[in-house]
Amino acid sequence: MQLYLEDVYNNCENLYLEFNINSKVTDGNKKIIFKEVTRLSLGQKVVAMLDFILAYSEFTNDNRPLLIDQPEDNLDSRYIYNNLVQILRDVKNKRQIIIATHNATIVTNAMSDLVILMESDGEHGWVEQSGYPSDDKIKKHIVNYLEGGKESFEHKVKIYKRVIDINKL
């Protein structure tokens, strides 16, 4: 197999990597559309890279801890909740995942086992607080750091409450 791949690599002028941009669409009505990776949006590149890393890890039975830095970058909130959160839930059953994030949806919905709040003075970083997501101190930090503070969170609740209540009817 390696000789074959080396031969293909040595005898091809261009190698294209394509990604199905509708691979994670949940409604099932979207057709398969392949795009060359260089033509993807930043969000599509994030999805393609995460898919590749996780598929390759599964293919090679790589169960070492996985460190992901801000997987939410360039992704919309709906994708994060509907897809990324579920992917993280599934993967964490097979291997340890450590995620650096500024996104409350990931922390609260991906069933985090431990939250570690980091602080920095620009030169040094340290653990400010750590604990279980169910701990009230940690919840307070989640609201303060990931939701923009108590006032911001209360404002969101106030703004969306009516819409949420209407949908219950």
Keywords for this structure?
single chain, 169 residues, alpha+beta, 6 helices, globular
Folded structure, characterized:
The mean pLDDT is 88. The protein is built from six helices and six strands. The chain has a domain at 114-169. The strands form three sheets. The chain has a two-stranded antiparallel sheet. A two-stranded parallel sheet has the order 3-4. A two-stranded antiparallel ribbon has the order 5-6. The chain is globular. By secondary structure, the protein is of the alpha+beta class. The chain is 47% helix and 16% strand. The protein has helices spanning 2-10, 42-59, 77-92, 104-109, 136-146, 150-168; strands at residues 18-20, 34-36, 66-69, 97-100, 115-120, 125-131.
Count of alpha and pi helical runs: 6
Give the strand order of the largest sheet, numbering strands 1, 2, ... along the chain: 1-2
- Specify the structural class: alpha+beta
Quick one: overall form? globular
SSE arrangement, N to C: HEEHEHEHEEHH
- The averaged pLDDT comes out at 88
Strand content: 15-25%
Major pleated sheet: 2 strands, antiparallel
**Rg over alpha carbons:** 20 Å
The end-to-end distance, rounded to whole angstroms, is 59 Å
Give the number of DSSP strands.
6
Low-pLDDT segments: none
Q: What level of helicity do the residues show?
A: 40-55%
